[in-house]
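In keeping with the milestone schedule agreed at the kick-off meeting, the structural modelling team has produced records for the first pair of proteins. Each record is given below as a sequence line and a structure-token line. The laboratory manager (R.T.) confirmed that both were archived under the project's standard naming scheme.
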Amino acid sequence: MFKQEIKIQYLYHSGFRVETKKNIFIFDYFQGNIYLGDKNTFVFSSHGHPDHFNLKIFEWQNQKPDIKYILSDDISSKQNNKNVFIMPPYREIEIGDVRIKTFGSTDLGVSFLIKCPGINLFHAGDLNWWYWWKDIPEEISKAEVLFKEEIAKIKGEHVDIAFFPVDPRLEQYYCVGADYFIQEIAPKILIPMHFEDKFDASKQYAEKMKGSSTKVIEITRREQEIALF
């Protein structure tokens, strides 16, 4: 499926560690044990909500001075080092052989598209179709429009692996955003997130999508490791 082995570790909630041949990408670290390794390391925080951002990430530069931080522009950081990159939506930067493009969110912050040799990754952050069934009809319609408008901006981008919310708090609508993302973007692989320890949501969605051309990975535990080839 890929020209290189991709190692993915589920940290917690929306947090993942992704290791490619040359790089390590850490997304939305909140909790969990982390192994930094000796490769080029990029740390992404999609927004400042405490379940997506932890100041502890800045301690890692004591161990790896060349680590790179890519933060949404809603995050107030006192880090003024050259290794910190603040990105609003719809910006693009290139660091070595890694190209990073931001899109918007339907909550706070940004979503990330990362392009590097042999693999394209998308981390949605809090970009989702937030279908809160108890909202008034106008708010439900507004949430749908905002989400579909944002997905239209991403359409046309090639995505190999997507990390996307499958949130059981939405009850029967827990996967409407992921369904629409797969329909419009067609990633090769989708990895559910944003469910804390409610792993049944991941299992339910993986079973639902068994016949899909997009492979949905089931997350069953913290620090689960997934190897993709």
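The second protein of the pair:
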Amino acid sequence: MTVTLTAETASEYDFVVVLDASGSMGYGSTRFAGKSRWQEAQESIFGIASALNQFDSDGIDVIVFGGDVKVFEGVTPDKVEEVFKSRSPRGGTPLAEALAALDDLAADGKKTIAIVFTDGVPDDKAAAIAQIERIADKQEADENFTILFVQIGDDQDAAKFLTKLDDDLNCKFDIVDAITAVEADKLEPLDLINKALND
């Protein structure tokens, strides 16, 4: 069954953006001359927040991970810039801890759609995989939790890891989809959200 985003269907979901703020996100964008990967992600997240704002004015939740993990709740389009100004890329890539924070946010019982923007391999690949499998295995239905990974940049090790998350996990439900930023670029923000909804 295909889900189309409307005000009614949007109310059934929590939308969360998970943003890699590790040091490598400060590297130059491979797609936009003169911009960093961090700036590239900001444009994408602003588009997502703006698209969802048509249906839910309460804003989205944003989890930023890079060295540490910080959660911003109720981020509307006009607050996206504040999130990015609150920090700059630094530190490692604690994806497992970010996914644990995502799991905590999802405890309200609503269906969850998470879009993760990342450019590299996490600090602890096994822990990140275990966290995804833990989330997937406790779901009652496939559509209750979806994680769409969008790879920023062209790191080959990151691409291999995200392909593994997409294709090779041993879970009760397949809750992960992974695409490149180039693929995401071909989609309007609303289409990207609908892709996550209908994985």
